[in-house]
Amino acid sequence: MGTKTSKRINDEDSINTRRNSSFFSSQTVRRSYADWICHSPLISSDIDRLTNEEINHFRKHQQITKNFPNSQTKHQNSPSKNLLRIEQLVESPSNKENSLSTIDFNQLNSLGNFRITLIDQSDLQNAHEIGKGNFGTVYHALYKNKRAVALKTLHSSSQENYSNENLLKLLFEAHIMTQLEHENLLNILGVTFYGENQQLSLVTDYMKNGSLLTYLRKHRNHFYKSSRKEINQKLDHFSQQIFQAMLYLEQRKIIHRDLAARNCLIDHEDHLKVADFGLTKLTDCGLYKGNAKTIFAIRWSSPEVILNMKYSSRSDVWSFGITLWEIYSLGERPFGYFNNQTVKNLLKTSSSNFSQYFPQSQQFGSNEVYTHLILPCLTYNVTLRPSFKDLNERISKILNENK
Q1: Of 199, 98, 89, nearest to 155 (Cα)?
Q2: Catalytic positions, written as ranges
Q3: pLDDT band, very low/low/confident/very high, at 43 (cuts 50, 70, 90)
Q4: 144 is in an annotated binding site
Q5: Helices (H), ranges, 290-348
Q6: Among candidate residues 297, 291, 263, 293, the one with its CA nearest the CA of residue 277
């Protein structure tokens, strides 16, 4: 790749050359990332510009295999894993009429060191569908015939028309996911291009038992028939793993913004990983102010988010409290069957006694978990609500006492 001494691209001819080059379909990428809003974190930084050497490197990898997972092409000039640069993701290959003709290449230059791993489709074997939803399809596959992975491919259609600026932000989100290294955070291997439409797809570790929410509801009857102490230990272990992941994020001034049992995944050995970083923000000061278009889940959102779109690690603490309640209630719905507008109205008044909407489980979880963990996380006043750091000693003591 280029070095600091490499010649920088700053003349109009170079830009026009790049504009006319044949790369991946920007329309495909735009659609994919528009739907992919729920799967990654945001970072903004000032990075070196692209170099001629790097642009030449891009062109070596413009041929991408098609018809995954049923076939592989003989044309495999690129390594099985490459560093995918931002320019590859915004230029059009075959549908030049759909290219981002208005793309600001100065913006691209400012993202010069952006890299995300490109996984060659030929390295993903035995893919088969394991789930389908409103946004796309999930496949199970083997990476290089060894590692079980999940391939999340999004539908080609999109209801939203995201700007170039949003596309660049979303590219940053995918990139920062690869920088998070913690045993309780879902590992993002990289991206690949899927099918005839070459849709951008996310490749992650495969978590056999699915979401924590599904796991709790699926095993609810079994838990009721099992030893209370044994199940409490299991639930405490889930809680501890989520806490460690969130403490890690807080220490790095990263706000998840969408913590919930549905966004935690379980493997075959009950090892938990927090996932779905689509709304995550990496900040300079630990604070983030949303706008009218900001997406949030009302039942897991703190009052300051509902009222003022103000996010911090302490708004994540509120969501953590709701998630703990989900765990010990074995997947009950927060706020019961109140509709979202009613929940929103409740969260707008400090006079609400939230404990009445989150009753203590009669079956699982100790009184200490409820009184000294869940309820403090649901403190209405954000300045009085504990941080994850504040909870560290307390949660270790309480959960370890239950062993």
Answers
A1: 199
A2: 258
A3: very low
A4: no
A5: 303-308, 313-328, 340-347
A6: 263
| 136-190 pLDDT tens trace | 678 899 999 889 999 877 555 443 443 444 445 445 556 667 778 899 998 888 8
Residue 286, classified by CB atoms within 10 Å of its CB into exposed (0-12), middle (13-18) or buried (19+), is: middle
Hey, where are the domains in the chain?
12-205, 212-401
Alpha helix ranges (H) inside 21-163: 26-35, 52-59, 86-90, 105-110
Q: Is 192 helix (H, G, I), strand (E, B) or coil?
A: strand
Q: What is the C-alpha R_g of the chain?
A: 23
Residues in a beta bridge with 147: 143
pLDDT of residue 295: 56
Q: Is 353 helix (H, G, I), strand (E, B) or coil?
A: coil
Give the model confidence (pLDDT) of 319-369 as tens digits: 999 999 999 999 999 999 899 889 988 888 876 677 888 989 988 999 999
- Measuring CA to CA, which residue among 298, 313, 323 is closest to residue 382? 313
Q: Are strands 41-42 and 280-282 parallel, antiparallel or unpaired?
A: parallel
**The tokens of 365 are what?**
């979880």
Alpha carbon separation from 179 to 170, 176, 186, 246 (Å, rounded): 15, 5, 11, 15
**Residue 299 has which token pair?**
């039942």
Whether a cis peptide bond, with omega within 30° of 0, leads into 93 is no
The torsion angles phi and psi of 376, rounded to 5 degrees, stand at -60, -35
Structure-block tokens of residue 244? 């460690």
Question: Is the CATH number of domain 212-401 1.10.510.10?
Answer: yes
The answer regarding whether domain 12-205 maps to CATH 3.30.200.20 reads yes
Residue 294 has pLDDT above 50, yes or no: no
Q: How far apart (Å, rounded) are the C-alpha atoms in residues 29 and 64?
A: 14
- Please report, in angstroms and rounded to a whole number, the separation of the first and last CA atoms in the chain: 52
Neighbour tally for 84: CB within 10 Å: 25
**CB-based burial label for 52 (10 Å; 0-12, 13-18, 19+):** middle
* Helix H or strand E segment including 289: strand 287-289
- Rounded CA-CA distance 371/355 in Å is 10
Instruction: Give the C-alpha separation, 287 to 272, whole Å.
Output: 27
pTM summary value = 0.70
Residue pair 175/41 in contact by the 8 Å Cβ criterion: no
